């Protein structure tokens, strides 16, 4: 299980060398499709590598799996919606690529340490 502290660390480069171009493209694909991320097979095909190689190199270079990275991007997107809109949580969960509000809330709490509602309230009470 990834904690909020781990999630923050894994967005930065873990390996200090420059990633290969195909790996950077794979990472960009995850960022571009944060709401509905493509499968690891689709990303690997687009990058021209085997899915297992992509997963292994992604973790080595960036400190997390492609799936974890995609969830981190979606949580960041949700944070923006929580602080900048008055959308209901159900809409934010769908806009952020989660299948339902319960899954969104569990994942959000795992990555941030607070529920989406607690997070929103911490910004509206300031």
Automatic annotation (TrEMBL):
UniProt GO MF annotations: DNA-binding transcription factor activity; sequence-specific DNA binding
Keyword match Transcription: yes
Region annotated Disordered, chain positions: 1-20
Keywords noted in UniProt: DNA-binding, Transcription, Transcription regulation
A Pfam entry, by short name: HTH_18
InterPro entries (UniProt xref): AraC_XylS_family_regulators (IPR050204), Homeodomain-like_sf (IPR009057), HTH_AraC (IPR018060), HTH_AraC-typ_CS (IPR018062), Tscrpt_reg_AraC-type_HTH (IPR020449)
Domain HTH araC/xylS-type span(s) in chain numbering: 24-122
Name of the protein: Transcriptional regulator, AraC family
């Amino acid at each position: 299980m990834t904690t909020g502290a781990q999630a923050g660390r894994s967005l930065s480069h873990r390996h200090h060398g420059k990633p290969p171009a195909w790996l950077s493209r794979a990472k960009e694909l995850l960022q571009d499709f944060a709401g509905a991320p493509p499968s690891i097979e689709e990303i690997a095909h687009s990058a021209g590598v085997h899915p297992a190689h992509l997963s292994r190199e992604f973790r080595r270079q960036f400190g997390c799996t492609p799936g974890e990275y995609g969830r981190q991007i979606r949580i960041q997107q949700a944070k923006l919606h929580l602080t900048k809109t008055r959308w209901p949580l159900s809409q934010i969960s769908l806009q952020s690529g989660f299948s339902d509000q319960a899954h969104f809330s569990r994942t959000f709490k795992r990555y941030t340490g607070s529920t989406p509602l607690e997070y929103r309230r911490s910004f509206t009470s300031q």
